[in-house]
Amino acid sequence: MTVPRGRVWKFGDDVHGDDGIIEFAIIRDSFGKEFDEDALRAMCFRRLRPEFPAEVRKGDIVVGGRNFAHHNHVEVSVAMRASGIAVVVVESCDSGFLRRALNHGLPVMICPGIHAAVQDGEVLEADPATGLVTLPDGRVLRASPFSERMVQIWHAGGSIPLLEREFAARRAAQG
Amino acid sequence: MSAAAPAIVRTAAQTIGQTIGQTIAQKIIAAHCGRDQVSVGEYVTVSPDYTACQELFWPGHKRNLERIGVDRIPRPDKAVMVIDHSTSAAMGSHHHETHRTLRDWCESQGIENFFGPGNGLRHLVLTERGFARPGTLIFSDEGNIATIGVLGALNLPISTEVIVAIIQDENWIAVPPSARITLTGRLGFGVTARDLIQTILRDCTADGRLLQCCVEFDGPGLATLSLDDRQAILASLFHSGAYTGIMEPDALALDYVRARDAGRPWQVVRADPDASYMTRLTYDLAAIQPMVTVPPDAHGAVPVEQAAGRRIDQATIGSCANGRLDDMREAARLLRGRQVAPHVTLYVTPGSRGVYVEAAREGLLEVLAEAGATILAPGCTTCWGYQGVLNENEVLISTQQFNYHGRNGARSSRVYLAGPAVVAASAVAGRITDPRDMLSEVEA
């Protein structure tokens, strides 16, 4: 899998997940149903950056400030992933966001210093497997690298696709 | 069964003279991955004692089980499945189907720990029915289930990944750092534990000092709080970005456990004296005032007088923060002989069937109903806007967990958070009110 390299969408500190990145009042009635990815894409970040849904491209990178995406249901992660975001790099976030996002195939890297080091629209390279974040000027910041299992989950596109593959392999091995 | 602090096990790294003290979270995690100790930030795979799962995302879990091709889960005895978010399968919702398929699946898997509508919140099911015991590690789908930390059990919230833990009987975690909050003194007249946690959130959220932490509580002030009060603190801790929370169980907690363990094993886990904490804080309970958290931030607490006078349309008492017997008692103490203001709707939700029964036995439900409250079935009910939906511009004061825009209905509605005393007093006055005047009349 190639190292994510993409254009930065930069957001600030304390970006709210449920009432910022998405809109809880709209998703609440859908809990339990298949994710409506079109609807999630359409609402993703629109409150903060109205142009985001139309202009985001596959492979773009979200850079966040402190306590990014706090108070997030899983739909927050699905909305970003469905929008094509390759990786999220933040100053800080709670553990729940990192887990929810990875579970749905979206890697989140906690990289202190990133917010001041990169501007909106610049190109960033960020590798969850090594924890290395390469800035436009070639400088490198270090985040905590993913564990081997986390890399597997990321590469598979989430926990469920990974388990699907592993169970299929196990069944095949058992003949 | 309760044991003294285990001797510090020295690993190769420590034989050169350094002692690495372990926090409660480190010790419980180490015990569940077959290790003597673990380091903060280390990735380990743990096998839980239980995995607790609610019904709201069940249809998705079921689809995923089918996609993966899971016929049998390895440990049906570890799954605790609770219908608590959609206790009344209302007309127009799809939740009645969820109830059916979850019940059927549990039966097909031999899962005996299925708790259908009306049993109450996972939080209370776990404590009241003896699943949460000292030293147990429980995967759950929500951070507010840190309430089980009142008994020395460790909640590790993994959201929709609970199904992964149920499929594999294990899951990965990053060992969290810990913080320590020491409580001294005693809460003053008309002040509840909810006021304390709202104060802690006000102080500790913006600078992220509890972010990703397991917060351990200790100190002489803790012993002055009831188990219900302690759970109110743990329930709301996650708003600070903390991962989970735990308290070393005292005699009160251990008596509670012994009455419910049904012979199942447990062991009290204590932190080493030289354990390392990212943050240490002390709160004097006597200095805490009645607080109101103003929308839209969970850390936007102000002293009640700063929010007093705001006209309200609805008041709700319940949720995993304040749906326990002490909360019902507090509400009844204020509402006895009084009437909810004519323009206010008051919903009260006991957190579990056990709380409901006890509240009935003590005559509290009668007091609440006579005052004009509507008693709802045990569950999450109003906290996520499933019931008591707000119209445009309506104002709610609630003991619930969230106050962000759109949580309970129209985005222009406003949600203020407070403890049961403030909410009950406000329901009577029809506006946000300091409960201490009304309580003085009660005491007089």
Automatic annotation (TrEMBL), chain A:
Organism name: Falsiroseomonas frigidaquae
SUPFAM superfamilies (alphabetical): LeuD/IlvD-like (SSF52016)
Protein name: 3-isopropylmalate dehydratase
Source taxon at top rank: Bacteria
InterPro entries xrefs: Aconitase/3IPM_dehydase_swvl
UniProtKB/TrEMBL annotation, chain B:
Protein name: Aconitase/3-isopropylmalate dehydratase large subunit alpha/beta/alpha domain-containing protein
Assembly and binders: Heterodimer of LeuC and LeuD.
Keywords: Iron, Iron-sulfur, Lyase, Metal-binding
Entry-linked Gene3D superfamilies: Aconitase, domain 3
InterPro entries in the record: Acnase/IPM_dHydase_lsu_aba_1/3, Acoase/IPM_deHydtase_lsu_aba, Aconitase_4Fe-4S_dom, IPM_dehydratase_rel_enz
Iron found in the keyword field: yes
Superkingdom of origin organism: Bacteria
UniProt domain Aconitase/3-isopropylmalate dehydratase large subunit alpha/beta/alpha: residue ranges: 27-430
